[in-house]
Amino acid sequence: MEKHFLLMTSLALPLLITSCFYLAFAFEPSPIQDFCVADTTTSARVNGLPCKNPKDVEASDFFFSGLHRPGNTSNPLGSRVTPVFVAQLPGLNTLGISMARLDYAPWGINPPHTHPRATEILTILQGTLQVGFVTSNPDNRLISKILQKGDVFVFPVGLVHFQRNVGNGNAVAIAGFSSQNPGVITIGNAVFGSDPMIANDLLAKAFQTDKNVVDSIQSKF
Questions:
Q1: What's the predicted TM-score (pTM) here?
Q2: DSSP structural state of residue 48
Q3: Taking the alpha carbons of 153, 158, 160, 165 in that order, is the dihedral positive or negative?
Q4: CB 162 within 8 A of CB 116
Q5: What is the rounded distance in angstroms from the CA atom of residue 149 to the CA atom of residue 126?
Q6: What is the pLDDT, as a whole number, of residue 27?
Q7: Rounded to the nearest 10 degrees, how much is the dihedral formed by the CA atoms of 121, 46, 49, 99?
Q8: Theoretical Cys-Cys bridge with 86: which of 92, 98, 171, 191, CB 3.0 to 4.6 Å?
Q9: What is the pLDDT of residues 36-71, one digit of tens each?
């Protein structure tokens, strides 16, 4: 009986370790065909998008043009994100990658936010950015750095992060993501601009402030 138990344990342990290894890296399944161009005309709903008939696939399905054009930063934040996700580039479907152009006016910000499905890698093309992310509870440690042209910085998946143009001229960056659809949760919008709104007394207690302050912030969203 004891030998049988030891044999089962010796067989199960490597299997468990292998299973955990694959689960840890299985954010998006690997493609099982050459490509799966997103079919945006179907109403079917799957984890991703259904595949277009390969016979109908064209070069335009793998092509996007426009990242050479500056984004309009005339907004309260002074920044603009031009995404190249699966919605803009159907050929990204199932490939687990995407990108974006980020433009910042002088002292413009990309406010604190998270990408629930992707790690982000940022490359500075122009200007000077202060970037940073905050580690999870209980430490909540801020990891921040000033970046110049040619510098690269990584924001781990799911962590709150931000960018701010700390120069007097425009700044431009290119971001890469480990998902075809990384998603974005802007902290201010989610907390103070939810629909319906989160109760102001709850937020006042959470942020250790007065309900009138919460009402004032909510009115801006």
A1: 0.82
A2: B
A3: positive
A4: no
A5: 5
A6: 56
A7: -10
A8: 92
A9: 898 888 888 788 889 999 999 999 999 999 999 999
